[in-house]
Fold these 3 entries.
Entry 1:
Amino acid sequence: MKKYLFPLLATFAIASGPVLAASIPASNKLAFDVIRKGKDIGDYIITFRKSGNNLTVRLNTKVKVKLPLVGVTVYKFEQKSSEQWRSGKLAALSSATNDNGEAHSIKLGASPLLPASLWNMDIVKAHKALNTIDGKKMKISVRKIGNEKVSTGHGKVAATHYRISGDLARDVWYGTDGTLVKVSFAGDDGSKVAYRLR
């Protein structure tokens, strides 16, 4: 059941200032419950801090999968990432990951590419991707599925559904304001994993 969460911080796409700004919620925070087989197994939290033309994005993922009844943890994933932006372009990115006991650490400098931690709607324009855990490049394609209503902690919201395929397989939904409202994918064991906006 490895690799449950890392694709959220695993890809790069071409940056776009206007879309970047639109993807930042007014509250400067996005919080998701990680749901597997109807159970809450973790959190995915994104915070934004703006100062003039500078933007800091911090992402924190914590997931634990336990055996039913006995409560023994059989899978654990933790990741902390920080993105530094200057005038709509990535200036630096750092990420530290514990993937079920396997540690990874990556630091990147300024780049014309953006990290597709999926909060940024520009991922739907990507054709190539870079895994920020192991540094491998991935080929992806994105298809628009259509407009749908998505359940969140604040009720149902209108969103556009996109399907990412190739070396990364994810379904993502963005609200009419451009913010991420849902992520869904299959775990290594075939179970469905979803990020549900609180």
Entry 2:
Amino acid sequence: MQSMPQLGVGTFRLEDDVARRTIIDALDVGFRHIDTAQFYGNEEQIGDAIQTSGVARETLFVTTKVWHENLEQGTFIPSVHESLSKLKLAYVDLLLIHWPSPKDNIPMSNYLSLLKQVKQDGLTRHIGVSNFTMAQIDEAESILGKGEILTNQIELHPFMQNRQVVEHCKERGISVTAYMPFAVGKVMKDETLIAIAKQYRATPAQVVLAWLEYKGVHAIPSSTDKSHLKDNISYTSVNLTGEDIVRIDELDNGERIVNPDFAPDWD
């Protein structure tokens, strides 16, 4: 059974032919984890790209997410079937709750029981959550049982390291997946990261990906440029020292980029 690769390709804001071409390019340079969501509106294009690529399904790890407007009893499972139909897949490898129900309008036990049912029905191999706080992780684990939550996908980059949440998840055997690991391009302009990258003849993006692996955090960076995709997947050539890690750790200033009005009260 394919486990979640350390690195995946994020697809937020990728539309139409750009989404299709990006996934074909990503698969061509060696990515095998593709992360999408119902909300992104590109599941159909990603499904097309997977079909076109000729890459064997069993070698892929595909993640999608249930949008918070589909958490009701009547819409949850139909929305998953719709996602699978668009992706042209019989199952996904990981299905996440994209955001907890805003203001807990829908009890967590309601939608997590549906998430578990989807797994039991074979529509996903793993289940997990996204944007969950420490208290929400504890509640979810009490509902689903220990070992059921594969990952908590959260915003995480050098400027917002979310350390409490990372530690909390790790203590429970739940992996953490970093979205927006490059802080929408800000890492490319940071003097510390540029200086470290120069030492290794690498890019700041590669330095950040090496730092995340050192921290035991998965990552799903996004890029539409094939050469950048190739650079990203080649990050393993960068071997950071303890001093490098400390310098990157010190960049944390709590700068949160993603904070919609329906977000939970963050830790």
Entry 3:
Amino acid sequence: MDYASSGVDIDAEGKAISSLIDALGSSVRKAGQKGAPVPLPGGFGGIVEFGDSRLVLATDGVGSKLQLASQTGWLRGVGIDCIAMNVNDLICVGAEPIAFVDYIAVPKTDPGVHAELGHSLAEGCRQARVTLAGGETATLPGIVTELDLSGTALGWFPKGGEVTGERLESGDSLIGLPSSGIHSNGYTLVRAVLERSGLSLGEGVPFDLEESGRIVRWQNGGVTLGEVLLNPTMIYVDPVIDLVLACREGTGPCAPEDIKAIAHITGGGLSNLLRLHETLGWHIDDPLPVHPEFSWIADVGSVNSREMHRTFNMGMGMVVAVSHGVSDDVTEWFSDRLPGTRRVGSATDSGKVTHADSSVVFDHY
């Protein structure tokens, strides 16, 4: 099985996005005006001018993970997912998230569902340290057949404080931050594998959950397969933005210019690293442990290693590239705040993403 055969073709999606961007034309706001675009090719958020500051916007949804959540009735994690997918993109350009707005679409109103979503969004805002500044709820029978949830996050950084990847050099170190599970990508393939397995979401997990360094938000013992598959997305504001702020203030483990690039490992998997620089490559020589649910998906779905690393985070939800000379200090700083963090590789001159698993190679995003 692969992502395309289950319904999502990443290459076709990329072509569609390129067509959309080509048709948009230039901004009506010009350089020097508030709201004028700040170019950032391949970036994870859209940057605009705002006087001596820069505002950053990111928008995303939970995707088909919502279908599994609706089946189980467990919606307490999806608001966290929605906020995480947005604020994690913002921090990739060095922006501190400050506010969020949500969009909820349903086929019919249900106060119980909206209450669960409210609790989940509130917890996501707490973890991301953002204000829920508003939102929209639409009841759309005939158009929407089941719950959909998306949102937009706003962040900022001082002018000149962006993290763009422009200063990257071959030999810079890659520090991997562990994920909390599948996060919110690849669920079309997850649902296809679940169907093939013949298991229900309420059954016990068919794999061993015990592994060192695992970051979980559910309790061990009596855990169901649904709980594992729906484990909320990790929000990386703490510690990544804390690192950026500390370094700007002179109290961190390195200078601001030593933080070269930050990548959110979402749809596209490790190929996301190619968005950070036009010519450099990346080699993952010491990958983080693969969570057991990924091994289960690969086994049940007969999904090859390259496809798994292009569809899922495989245990590493974010990568921070720093100057080689400060990598030990930064890794120690992260590890004190997020156990399981470690150096996983380095920037290269190859122009490709390569891996300790020789079958995992990407030459385009």
